[in-house]
Amino acid sequence: MLNIYATFLLITLFAIITLVAYIYSYRAQLAQGVDEGLRYDIHNYNKSSHRNHVLSIDAIQEKLKCCGVNGYKDWLLISPKKQIPRSCCMRQNNNHNDHNDHNNNWCRPENSTDLYPSGCSIRLKEILNENISLLASIITGVAFFPIFGAILSCCLANSKRSRYEILI
């Protein structure tokens, strides 16, 4: 019975190893998916039926201090009025008379130094690359528990087997 338990633990171990290999090998496709998702959300930013795109893009740009997919010029390409969302603007001063009026949802690109310089794709890829090794390390660390359990269950099975006396 303990050998069956050890077998299940080893199957779990192989599943964990497969998961780590899958995450590591498909990280490029994950980064490409991030780019595609950002582009989709930016193109649907100000459409009335896509309010969640506005909220998600604004949250990403404010939290990561980034603008657009590759930079603020992404917004200029899709905005007929050449406007950039307020979430791209660095809010270093609270002067309501400048072009960063907080009552307005847009800022104007006249002074690009007021805008976050890096694109969100770059920032998200940095975060992904920084944390993928951590994620793989955590999963690999968790993989030691099934190894340890399988070894202990095999040792326990062998010790129980050695206690039996063969009667002839």
TrEMBL record:
It comes from the Eukaryota. InterPro entries: Tetraspanin/Peripherin, Tetraspanin_EC2_sf. It is a multi-pass membrane protein. Its main location: membrane. One of its GO terms (cellular component) is plasma membrane. Pfam families: Tetraspanin. Keywords: Membrane, Transmembrane, Transmembrane helix. The chain crosses the membrane at residues 6-24, 132-152. It is found in: Membrane. The keyword Protease does not apply. Signal peptide: none annotated. PANTHER family: TETRASPANIN (PTHR19282). This is Tetraspanin. It comes from Megaselia scalaris (Humpbacked fly). The lineage of its organism: Eukaryota, Metazoa, Ecdysozoa, Arthropoda, Hexapoda.
